[in-house]
Amino acid sequence: TGLVTVDPGFMNTASCESEITYIDGDAGILRYRGYPIEQLAEQSSFLEVAYLLTHGELPSSDALSGWIERIERHTHLHDNFKALIGAFPTNAHPMAVLSSAVSALPGYYPESVDPFDPETVELASVLLLAKAPTIAAYAHRRALGQEMIGPDRGKGYVGDFLRMAFQPNGTPYEVDPVMVKALDVLLLLHADHEQNCSTSTVRIVGSSHANLYASVSAGINALSGPLHGGANEAVLQMLTQIQASGGDATEFMTKVKNKEDGVRLMGFGHRVYKNYDPRAAIVKKAADEVLSKLGKRDEMLDIAMRLEEIALNDEYFIERKLYPNVDFYTGLLYKAMGFSTSMFTPLFAVGRMPGWIAQWREMMQDPATKIGRPRQIYTGPTSRDYVAAEQR
Ligand code: CMC
């Protein structure tokens, strides 16, 4: 093992070859299967992008409608599965509910766990995409102590997700098309991001030939951390605190730069982007437009924009190449839609689902795949002899 070198955080280790997502972090470029993220956000849709990521090509219009229809046919949850979610305390974090529910799925669909049968894998992929929003909507209602509302296929994937989350019990409810479009774009922007922490987790779990659900639920848990998907929740908490203490962005930034109590500007910085995250640029524009259109323009958006302006002109951030990442503005949109902060990371998970599935499928089909098993450099005591407890 003389050739083994330590690479903390895998800063310099490529764990695989992949045809799915291209990032040029210095230029701020992101492409799914070669298509620029800006074009997809403008012209495509979340489920079309989910097909693109998982199948490699954009679908024909027949293939697309077949794909959407198949997913929408499976959005319901069986009663005993609902009971499983209903057993959580109402103050359970929705990420705990989501990861547990996804872990439980293979128990309910044992016919879809063979990782090497293409039809089975397609079924598991469809089931995950179909069930994730329903589970997330139920987790949202659970936290509010509300009954679950079942899916209604005619409303569209994103529209019905919003309806399941927000329709008051027993009352008709029309989802705002502006919200539907905004959430569709947000989910699409999160759909894949190559070998980030959760996707690497999905791959390493799957490399042991664990089924797709087991691998994805591990990914959901990896996403929950504040340095990864949990950052969108942390951004809103940060903005709320700044607002509550008088809205002084400059004072907060001084704390960040002095690294007081390890405080970071959440939603800033990225392992790969050393330039403006192209997703953040799209979200910022959407937040500005959508909040104005809905008349929900928020003082916190102004605080966020002030923080950004200070950062982009400040030596600390410039020399470290710290720019807004995707999470900096997403929370403001989720909030305007009516989601509580604890739902922000589950929304990220619903969006990232196609990427986890696509990366897992690519890995399973790649003959070069081996079980993930990093090495280490041992730094503990050298050999020593056991001493009985009474002699220590
Ligand atoms: N605020 C203040 N300083 C920062 C920040 C920040 N947000 N991010 C990095 N730095 C500083 C860091 O202190 C270090 O400074 P120094 O050289 O003086 O020690 C330098 O920049 C390099 O940072 P690092 O932690 O070594 O960089 P990394 O590549 O290991 O971490 C990161 C990347 C995203 C974890 C980090 O930038 C961070 O913690 N950002 C805030 C959390 C966040 O927004 N995460 C979401 C990431 S994007 C979506 C996702 O993955 O879910």
Automatic annotation (TrEMBL):
The record's listing under PANTHER family reads:
CITRATE SYNTHASE
Which residues constitute the catalytic centre?
270, 327
GO process terms (BP): tricarboxylic acid cycle
Pathway terms, separated by semicolons:
Carbohydrate metabolism; tricarboxylic acid cycle; isocitrate from oxaloacetate: step 1/2
- What's a GO cellular component annotated to this UniProt protein? cytoplasm
Keyword Acyltransferase assigned to the entry: answer is: yes
Give the record's keywords alphabetically: Acyltransferase, Transferase, Tricarboxylic acid cycle
A Pfam family that the UniProt record links to this protein: Citrate_synt
Specify the protein name. Answer: Citrate synthase
Q: Which GO terms describe its molecular function?
A: citrate synthase activity
Q: Which InterPro entries match?
A: Citrate_synth-like_lrg_a-sub, Citrate_synth-like_sm_a-sub, Citrate_synthase, Citrate_synthase_AS, Citrate_synthase_bac-typ, Citrate_synthase_sf, Citrate_synthase_typ-I
User: Which family does the entry's similarity section mention?
Assistant: Belongs to the citrate synthase family.
Reaction(s) the record says it catalyses:
oxaloacetate + acetyl-CoA + H2O = citrate + CoA + H(+)
